[in-house]
Design goal:
Layout (H helix, E strand, L loop, with lengths): L1 E5 L2 H18 L4 E4 L6 H12 L9 E4 L1 E3 L10 H8 L11 E2 L8 H15 L4 E4 L21 E4 L2 H7 L12 E4 L2 H5 L3 E6 L5 H9 L17 E6 L7
Parallel strand pairs: 1-10, 2-3, 2-6, 3-5, 6-9, 9-10
Antiparallel strand pairs: 4-8, 7-8
Helix pairs in contact: 1-2
The structure holds 2-phosphoglycolic acid.
The site of 2-phosphoglycolic acid has 6 residues, from loops.
Length: about 240
């Protein structure tokens, strides 16, 4: 695990965007695993800026998002489909046919999850997976538990996650209780991983991620076993290191 501590959220966003851009420049057909949440918003804005300035071409890139709420229609402003278009896809020249998110309400959930994994495999696997981290150490929506799923699956969101994410909704009751997420195996199979964390509310999770024991009760701690994982944190998220 390579840890980089930067001064501010803006620097974190710049550094993260540089890493994603380098991946795409080195391989115009790169397969990117993408994350949602507040943390990568700045990174997407910087990448959109690079594209505006003709510094990067996303036309050959394929993307797979980590997760999606179940039960929210795609058009809902808080679906991850909407988020990704608002923050990134609508601002770059990505081919819509190469964009993938887990289906939010498939008729056959098990089949849909299997197909998502299949699509990742057929694309050749993820070259670079971007991750945020929950205050409880979740990555994607792999919540702390006695055991963790390997592949894409349906998950019950932890109370802590529902509480944290309620800031995006009118009320706590509106937050979906379930989501579809890539599993720990799907994430760990990525050739490279880039984990981002900003703010003091992430300090405890970051400490447990980089310097604690590996445990399923802190899913992000499994990243210590990945061969090529870069962690970029701002000073506040690094406060307990
Ligand atoms: P955040 O979410 O970026 O909004 O803090 C991260 C996560 O829950 O994975």
């Amino acid at each position: 695990m390579e840890l980089r501590v930067v001064e501010s959220y803006d620097q974190l966003s710049e550094k993260a965007a540089e890493i994603v851009a380098a991946e795409v420049k080195q391989n115009r057909r790169a397969i990117l695993g993408l994350a949602t949440g507040s943390t990568p918003e700045g990174m997407y804005a910087v990448l959109a800026g690079y594209h505006r300035d003709n510094k990067i071409d996303f036309s050959g890139v394929t993307t797979f998002n980590l997760d999606e709420y179940t039960g929210l229609p795609r058009e809902h402003s808080q679906s991850y489909y909407s988020y990704m278009h608002r923050h990134f896809f609508d601002h770059v020249n990505i081919d819509p046919r190469r964009i993938h998110l887990p289906e939010s309400s498939p008729q056959d959930m098990a089949r849909s999850c299997r197909e998502y994994e299949q699509k990742i495999e057929e694309a050749g696997g993820i070259d670079l997976q971007v991750l945020g981290i929950g205050v409880n150490g979740h990555i994607g929506f792999n919540e702390p538990a006695d055991s963790l799923d390997v592949y894409t699956h349906l998950v019950e969101l932890a109370e802590e996650t529902i509480e944290t994410n309620s800031r995006f909704f009118n009320s706590r009751e509106e937050v979906p209780q379930q989501a579809v997420t890539m599993g720990m195996g799907s994430i760990m199979h990525a050739a490279k991983i880039l984990l981002l964390a900003s703010g003091k509310n992430k300090a405890r999770a970051i400490k447990k991620t980089v310097s604690g024991k590996i445990t399923t009760t802190v899913p992000s701690s499994l990243l210590q076993m990945h061969r090529n994982c870069t962690v970029i944190v701002d000073c506040e998220a690094a406060a307990l290191l």
